[in-house]
Amino acid sequence: MTTASPCEPLLAALHALLGERMSTSEAMRAHHGHDESCHADALPDAVVWPHSTAEVSAIACLCSQHGVPMVPYGAGSSVEGHTLAIHGGICIDLSQMNRIVAIHEADLTATVEAGVTRMQLNRELRHSGLFFPIDPGADATLGGMSATRASGTNAVRYGTMRENVLALTAVLASGEVVHTGTRARKSSAGYDLTRLLVGSEGTLAIITEVTVRLYGMPDAMSAAVVNFDSVTGAVDTVIQSIQCGIPLARAEMLDALTMQAVNRHSRTDYPERPTLFLEFHGTADSVAEQAAMVGELAAANGGGGFAWATRDEERNKLWQARHNAYFAGLQLQPGSRCVATDVCVPISRLSECIEATYADLRHEGMQAPLFGHVGDGNFHLMLLVQPGDEAAMAQAKAVNHRLIQRAQGMEGTCTGEHGIGIGKQPYLAAEAGTHGIAMMRAIKLALDPAQLLNPGKIFSY
Amino acid sequence: MTTASPCEPLLAALHALLGERMSTSEAMRAHHGHDESCHADALPDAVVWPHSTAEVSAIACLCSQHGVPMVPYGAGSSVEGHTLAIHGGICIDLSQMNRIVAIHEADLTATVEAGVTRMQLNRELRHSGLFFPIDPGADATLGGMSATRASGTNAVRYGTMRENVLALTAVLASGEVVHTGTRARKSSAGYDLTRLLVGSEGTLAIITEVTVRLYGMPDAMSAAVVNFDSVTGAVDTVIQSIQCGIPLARAEMLDALTMQAVNRHSRTDYPERPTLFLEFHGTADSVAEQAAMVGELAAANGGGGFAWATRDEERNKLWQARHNAYFAGLQLQPGSRCVATDVCVPISRLSECIEATYADLRHEGMQAPLFGHVGDGNFHLMLLVQPGDEAAMAQAKAVNHRLIQRAQGMEGTCTGEHGIGIGKQPYLAAEAGTHGIAMMRAIKLALDPAQLLNPGKIFSY
Predict the structure, then answer these.
(1) Which of A 132-191 lie inside 8 A of B, CB atoms?
(2) Would you state the CATH architecture of domain B8-93?
(3) What is the interface pTM, i.e. ipTM, of the complex?
(4) For residue range A375-413, what is the model confidence (pLDDT) as tens digits?
(5) Which tens digit of pLDDT belongs to each residue from B15-32?
(6) Which residues form the FAD-binding PCMH-type domain (chains A, B) (predicted)?
(7) What is the CATH number of domain B100-216?
(8) Which of B191, B324, B60 is nearest to A453 (CA)?
(9) Where are the alpha helices (DSSP H) in A8-160?
């Protein structure tokens, strides 16, 4: 694969194209070569800030002509090293492509540039009665969320980016622009290029525009916090609710250590026990009915102390506390980095998977906050490591290794929502199998023969 | 591309492998070389009935060694010519691979062999309290439904095969077996090979096993038939319901001519006016609430004469009448073949698209039943043509041509659920664009370089 440093003619051409919107400064390169993951920094040779699909196309043409890697960059909130320029090259920062292109309220769709963040889109929608539900913890860009097949707390009800991206505009390595999908709600027209690019982590194309589905704001929304004697009680309450067909809008579990971290970080006073954060969407009557049914299941599983939030302000505070769980967890060991695990298993195996993981932690003499989107079978363990502590890092990676093997042994996946990036490549190979990986490589080579798009991510060459 | 007839050594090898489960008889070849579409018959050179993924793999190895095309075959219910062996070769009939591999009730998943039909799966589930919602009119196989990205009447609530296939086992042209996806509800693990194969129409791999999502049978289900002064009133009732966030489970519109055909075929006595067939799923209270809200919208749009069906038997009769609409339509002109249109547009444009289509029919002096999944923006026009009437066929194709252009001009698609097959290839080219088609071709050539898998479907070479 090509790892040539950008030659002066390329940098000169990019400067001619973009002027001040191209930088080779140490500070900018360092900012873009560092991320939320525990992977080592890896700086690009230059950073560019295009303003249009046409400019991205021109940049891709130039990089291709010079055989230089391209690394798409959104909000930089990846926890799997997606934006690290491990083979150097040009970081294409799409954050200035942040226009709302069109909101079609009657069709429940929005088309936005790749740099629009989920919160920006929802601010834009606030008077429309519509909302966009997908919410990874960070205020990620819709381009980045598409590229990593992100999800979040609402996925149990509304699906992930896989289900909610209708169409994309993307730039291929050659600079050619493709428009995948249409604004129709469904289609059987040829290969599903949209779903192929969703989750491709910038290795097949650079996403520049995204059309997503929107949803009507429900008549009634009600959130609740309920605590349990055990993690199993909390998890089983959610699983049984799903098996009963109760359309939970959100069902998040935070264990006692996570609740302790949340209380410290968000200055809340929740009981520091295994806790569910729940939300119900519907009409006033159906929300009351759903809540009553879940309340009964919770009581039967040792849950108690329901605290309700129905006003928007209370609900937002509650979910902000949940969204901050990652940052709260980091503060348990100030200065630490986090090995974030991300397995997802069939829901019937979730309690068993979590219990076996706690047993492993006890055996290792470790503590780690555990929380997750239990309605999807997806949970995260925050394995905190002080920089430079090689032994602790090795121990954390070994716990993650065993956790992934456990999940894959239960017909689950090594990553529910974070993506493969750099660190999960061996696990993808195990999960997809020899022929599955060979199919992925064949597709990669067919669409990016010079391997210039985000090289070294998903698989190495 | 290869169009060599199967040589004797291949036929001998297939016979040695499969014995009586290989046939070159004229009758079997004719049966498999004919379909529901208006395309000309095209017979395979032989038909095989494998019983396992291993046998499909062995067949693929043999076909590849001899450079002979392979055409996967399920229930033969395609209306776009997918199963016609237009380049000859071996028809791989998967209907005897009809075992239910596993039903995981607690996880709401089922794994079945490709030849299992949707009704067979639902019969198997009848005591479990679960069901599989995707229902194209015919009793198609789950392999075929996956390969064409099928949907049906429940898609407005439960999605299409795109949203409901979790994992696949498939055989590549080389005979290699891939397992895509896992039983986890979501994943970010590498390229979405599952979604790439869903809708690939047998051109990338032969699907041999399918893992799908199941749903809990709702506490209450209630269906209703309501008739309207105008098609627009019926369509607008559905669109407004969706825009209000009412979770319709089914919302089918049948125009007056279709209702006439249904009455004749199913011996019903519905008013022969534009009609909605609706269904509501939920708890008893929420179903009543949904029905009341839709009732108000219907009344405001000129709807009346609500007839309710709440008992299973009544509901089944109603939906059977709807599922038979295609066959009922054919009987309006006995002996005719049907050019079935399948556009899908953003829902805000649906009334306009239908009205313009009626205007075109009036201008042509034609009548054609029109019905569809209006909640998705998808509708079908049955353009009936007597065999051999070239002028009528040309006129029908011209109407479909203008309809597709109209839909694509409204940011819609040429096919909502039938697929591209043989007839819609020029429209796919227009919809996907030069670079989109080039991407699809590159993927095809990367995965099936000798172009032996269902050649001539989706695109010609």
Answers:
(1) 148-151, 155, 159-160, 162-163, 172, 176-180, 182-191
(2) 2-Layer Sandwich (3.30)
(3) 0.96
(4) 999 999 999 999 999 999 999 999 999 999 999 999 999
(5) 999 999 999 999 999 999
(6) 40-217
(7) 3.30.465.10
(8) B191
(9) 8-18, 26-32, 53-66, 118-124, 142-148, 155-158
